[in-house]
Amino acid sequence: MLLIIERYRMFKSRRLLLWAAPLVAGVLVAGGCGRITLWQVRSNMTPELHDLARNHGHALNDQARYIDNNGRSAWNDLDRLLLLDHNSTLHPYPIP
Question: What confidence score (pLDDT) does residue 66 get?
């Protein structure tokens, strides 16, 4: 009796596999990525990356941070050039 039950379970799992495999394949074919040609793949192998390790959004964030840092550094450099960054040490008495 146990042998009959085991064969039935094996037959049931095979039958399920025979139905599920074509169904999954059909869904993947019908709802795939669309038409991608070989030329599109060869022209841009990694379309989501802007350079070797970052995508376009990360590159834009880095550029914005660099521009911000450079702008603040330019104001610091201007203060140093005009001697506005600290008190003068030419006066004989300390200035608070």
Answer: 96
